Amino acid sequence: MELKQTIEKRTSIRNFTEESVPVNDLKELVRRAGLAPSVNNYQPWKFIAVTNKDVLSKMAIKVSEKIKELPENKSIASKNVKSQVEWFATFFENAPAVIAMVMEDYESVLEKGVQLSHEEINKLRNFPDMQSAGAAIQNMLLSAVDMGYGACWLSAPMMAKESLEKILAVENPYHLIAFVAVGKPSRQLEPKSKKPIDEIFKLIE
Ligand SMILES: Cc1cc2nc3c(=O)[nH]c(=O)nc-3n(C[C@H](O)[C@H](O)[C@H](O)COP(=O)(O)O)c2cc1C
Prior knowledge:
By secondary structure, the chain is α+β, with helices and mostly antiparallel strands. The chain has helices spanning 3-9, 23-33, 53-69, 78-90, 118-124, 128-146, 161-167, 197-200; strands spanning 45-50, 97-104, 150-154, 174-183. The chain starts with a helix and ends in a 5-residue tail after the last helix.
């Protein structure tokens, strides 16, 4: 599919058919994610694809438990908000595949020459690790569309990061960053409306 068309067609897909995603397609999604730019070309990522229903269900249970534990404020919407968030954080359990992105801390060139901690440099550079992660995930989302799938980026499950890392056997120096749920869309959705160009563009001549 032409890139422009792929970009324009992409929208978050959260409902999937039962059709499984072949391993080679999962690998291809990850390969394309890995082609993204990253800080100093460090490529700090690895990807764990999960198609096992029991594992996905265990993960979703941990996320639900975590959300239920969150202290509610006094608003009358509180319970509704939590159950809404719970759905957006756990729908992945019904996806044919979920790809977890894990990353290790990158060591910037600056770290070798200045007396600042990794965290301080990362903050100074405005979190290039997370910016790199975003580029890779977007590559994956666009590739999913290009390959006839639908996908959705998820950060909400990260609320249960520690438990999920245990389930997925993520070990130091790697830590969980985000998930992408992928599968065949159960129905075609129209892309969401986005801000018009004049609202988001400014030119300094
Ligand atoms: C960093 C990030 C985290 C997101 N986390 C979630 C999530 O946890 N659950 C979810 O259902 N959607 C999640 N989304 C998808 C957004 O809700 C979605 O991109 C947004 O509503 C715009 O819709 P569109 O993707 O169809 O254009 C996330 C998107 C981004 C970029």
